[in-house]
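Collaborator request, handled under Task 6.
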Amino acid sequence: MSKALDNLLLYAGVVKRVGYTLTFGMLNAGSRDELLKLYNGYNGHHQPGENVPVDPFIIPKTDVFELFGNDNAAYEGVYECGFGHTTEFELKVISNLVKKWNPQRIFEIGTFQGRTTLNMALNSSSDAEIITLDLPAEELASTKMEIEEGEVRYVKKEVSGERFIGHPAASKIRQVFGDSASFDFNEYHNSVDVAFVDGSHAYEYVLNDSEKAFSIVRKGGLIIWHDYTNWPGVWTALNELHQNDSRFRGIRHIGGTSIAILTV
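Structure tokens returned to the collaborator:
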């Protein structure tokens, strides 16, 4: 009986600790980082036996509370997380960043199902324009650079942007298609307020997409990257840009997320 009671008390303690961590504990950057490490360990993209650096995330951290105040963004499909999606917390962070920057023009590289696209539309002004670029499935075999094998499934989909098609906010959204390595960005040069980079996670593509994003974002604008802590190609490219290119020296990693940001 005593052993059963001990086990019950132990279980209650664990439940209490987990409950705290997932609620009030989320206010602590350290707790969010630990949860993210656990998430990446179970859901990460590392291959068995892969030699991963002890601490590959060298970009300095910032906290959501340093970026904006109270959460006043609007959301749709926030809890519908899965492969290829931002997490619930990440979607809220992105939505609040868009709300704070109040962009007139947003450019997204990597539409996928359009969940993030839709939420950016919901948190921008009524006259804002969102351009979202996606690689068509039929161009998968002819990309200028090689994409990661694990992201082929994100390209091979029947519909691109299905989350916003038919939605009232879709009037703000303009879909364009092509390979970001060969797409002509000249039309958007120095005219974008927020760029969201979430296309191919391959090293060469991240470098390409970061360069293209920098060329289209005007001074004072914001670049947002997804999956910094999830894909080796992303963290390798962003670490390199942060260390070696003065234009990207100001990149910051938002603690508790896989999001990196840069104010241009």
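The cover message to the collaborator said: "Residues 44-263 form a domain with the Rossmann fold fold (CATH 3.40.50.150). Strands lie at 61-62, 105-109, 129-134, 173-177, 192-197, 217-225, 252-254, 260-263. Please let us know whether this matches your experimental observations."
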